[in-house]
Structure formats: C-alpha cells, structure tokens
Amino acid sequence: MGEAQNQPFQLSFNPRLRIEFQGSRVTSDGGLILVRELDERLGVSDLIAQHITDPRGKNTQFPLTDLVRQSVYRRLAGYEDVNDAERLCHDPTFRLIGSEQIWERGAALTSRVHSFETELLTQGENLTGLAAINRELLARVEAMESSRRVVLDIDSTEIPVYGQQEQSAYNGHFEGTCYHPLLLFNRDGDCLAVKLRPGNVHSAEHWDDVLLPEIERQQKQGRDVVVRADAAFAKPELYEALETRGVKYAIRIPSNDILEREVAELLPRSVGRPSHKPVVRYKSFRYQAASWTTMRRVVAKVEFHCEELFPRVGFIVTTLEIDSRAVVRFYNKRGTAEQWIKEGKLAVKMTRLSCHRFRANEVRLWLSVIAYNLGNLWRRLGLPKRIDTWSLTSLQQRLMKTGGRLVKHARYYWLLLAEGHLTRSLFGAILRRLEALSVPAG
User: What is the spatial distance between Cα 66 and Cα 385, in angstroms, rounded to a whole number?
Assistant: First the structure.
C-alpha cells in the first residue's frame, strides 16, 4: 500500500503526463536567495550573535541564527502562520538560507518555531536584542549613505485582535478591539522603531520613548533632524522637546475658531466660473494656543474644488524657514508613512499578533518589522531603477515567488530557477548591485 501511495498521478486528458510531489526538492520561493545575499553583506549573522542570548547550551539541534532567519524570512515570503513551518521545513529555499547543518536535515518544525518565538525571544534581553538588531542593521546602511539631513515620520496604526489577547482593548476611533502600535520611519521607508501599545491609548502616547532616542542617535552622527506628524501629535510638550533639541518640525494642528478667523479673507470663492483645477491659497501667521508657552508659526492651506461647496482648510505648525507652499508640500509627503505601514500589514503580515501574551506579540511585531526592513533594503539597495518602486507585495509575487528545483551533486548544490519575472539577466543585475555594496565593518 505504501508503494502505491508513492506512485505518480496519471491524468485522463493526457496519458503521457505524470504528476509527482517532491517538496524537499522543489521550491516556490527561490527569489529569497537574493535577500539572503543582502543579509550576508550586511552582517545579520553577527548582529544576531551579539544581541540574542541562547540559554539552551551547546547541544542544540538548530543554531540560533537559523531560527531567527526562519522566523524573519517566513514573514517576508508572506507565510503569516507558525503552522506554515510544518511545510516550509523541507522547502529547499528555507533550508539553503540557513547554516550548512540544516541543508539536509531541514529547518525547524512548528513546535520548535513556536517555542522559540513565544519563550526564548520573550526573555527581556532578547526582546531588547530584536530592537537592537533592527536598528543596527539600518545603521550599517546609513553609514554607506552621505545624507546630512534625516526626516522622521511618526504615526500610529490599528492591529485588530479577535481573541482575549493581553492588553487588547476597544478603540473608539477605529471602532474595534485592537492593539495600537506606534511606528517611526525615515523618508526612505525604513522602520526605525516600533512600540506595541494597548488598544485604548491615545495616538501620541509614549511618543517620547520612540522619537527622542532616535533624534539623539541621529544628532550624534552629526545629522540635522526634521520631524513630521499628523494632528494626533499636536502636543505642546512635543513641540518644546523638539525645539530644545534644535529639531525642525512640521505638524498638523486641529482647526479652531481663532485659526479660521486668521484665514477668513481666503475663504470666499473667486467671482466667475470655477476652475476645473483646484485653486489653492496659502497664508503664514504667528499664533499661540492657550496651552502654549510661546507664539509659533502656523501655515494655512485653503483649497477649492469645483464640485465642492466649501473649501478644504488645513493648518500646520512649523519651525521650517521656507515659504508656505514648500511647507505644505513637505508635510504632504508624510502620507508615504501610511503607505509603508500598509505595506507592512499586507506584505509581511504585521497584523498577525494572535498570541495571548502581550510580550509574545511584541516579539512577533519586531520579527515582522525586521522582515519588512530586509525587504525594503533589498528594494532600494539591490533592485535596478526600473523596478525599485515596486511594492513589497509585488516583489513577493513577482520576484520572491520564483519556482526552482534543488539538485545535489558531489561537491555543489544547484538551485535551478524558472524564468518568469525573475530572469537570468535581472538576477545577475541584482547580484552585481549587492556585490558592489561597501558595508562598513561592525
């Protein structure tokens, strides 16, 4: 009976066709090999060894670096559930991205991955270590770049939950039970920091824990820092903290009667037939709210649309010394941070926080952030210009999801990839770009 189960399948529409399942030799994620090459160039193995403590001793079946990579690359490939490890443990790509000792034996099974993520990584020093791995990985890339000005976008988002997870709570704004994490990005889309918070906290809660350490780090490197944020972060203590540190900012503030009186002369429509294109007017003025200790510059934007009865009015408090139009244009680029959050949710399944314990969900969020950053760094450092604007979801579907077959010879392993979106010439172009990276040691 066992012999019959191993026989290939035959199909009636083509008697000469035979179907066989060889999961240990065939992969659908061959493109991840290129991300693993970037990982090697950036020294991720060293970062894991420095920041993750392994209490298991020397007699271990799976090296720590392999377990971390399996958890990160699984998310990067779009496999959100720990149960996926049962199938992926025999996948050639997931074996080859690890150390040589798992090439034949296979990667870790579900039970091992689960205990690794919910027990070993939840230890205090290891949770802090994941944050350090993420930040030092990005620091190595920053050292290759010559920018003297850093733009930081801080924003919060919703992660819905459906069970009895610790510290999950109902949020009236999102109208659901959720977690409410805080995220910090630079203008290249790298996620510099994240903080998982209970669902019922204010959007700006713990802003100082996320923002101030990053400002200090960047200023120690001699960089000028500019901060952008939406109206949820319109807090006088935030303004004062940034001004004390010499940090420029552009932060939207809610409208009120006093602000609207300042722009009253801009609100009437022009006489005559309305333009089909939006008509935009700007004004800059000094303003001091009751809770502020000093006057600050506010830039107003009034925008008329031909099919709308009332104009759209917005206000931005800023310390930037540029004209009003440039301030608004600079602030509007903050919207890309929302796009990066969306990529994290769709591509690396950042929202999959299904553990009961809050600390285990913190670990899973950090693993997703590291996976997101690896994908984003691969996009902006490794991909040719014509495709470096693809979303992470497109990169998954078109490049990472490349079929391949593993063939073992006496001295080498051959991974034979199918040519689709990832052609031989594109593979070579990406590899050459990665080999040209000049990554500083340590």
Answer: 32
Structure tokens at 356: 């009961």
- pTM to 2 decimals? 0.92
Query: pLDDT tens digit string along 69-118?
Result: 999 999 999 998 899 899 898 888 999 899 888 888 888 889 999 999 99
**Residue 395's closest CA among 380, 417, 414?**
380
DSSP calls for 260-289:
HHHTGGG-SPPSSSPPSSPEEEEEEEEE--
- Check residue 103 and give its pLDDT: 83
Q: Look at 282 and 267; give whichever has higher pLDDT.
A: 282
CA distance 2 to 430: 45
Residue 3: count other Cβ atoms within 10 Å of its Cβ.
6
R_g over Cα of the chain? 26
> What percent of the chain is modeled with pLDDT above 70?
95
Secondary structure element (H or E) that encloses residue 225, with its range: strand 224-229
Rounded CA separation 442/422 (Å):
32
Amino acid sitting at position 111: S
CB atoms closer than 10 angstroms to residue 148: 9
57 three-class SS: coil
Helix (H) or strand (E) holding 37: helix 32-41
Q: What is the pLDDT confidence band of residue 3, given thresholds at 50, 70 and 90?
A: very low
Residue type, 39: D
Would you give the distance in Å from CA 156 to the centre of its chain? 13
Please tell me the total number of residues recorded for the chain in this structure.
Answer: 442
Q: Cα separations (Å) of 437 from 32, 41, 140, 296, 380?
A: 18, 8, 11, 44, 12
Kindly give, in sequence order, each residue whose CB lies less than 8 Å from that of residue 162, ignoring residues fewer than 6 positions away.
Answer: 177, 354
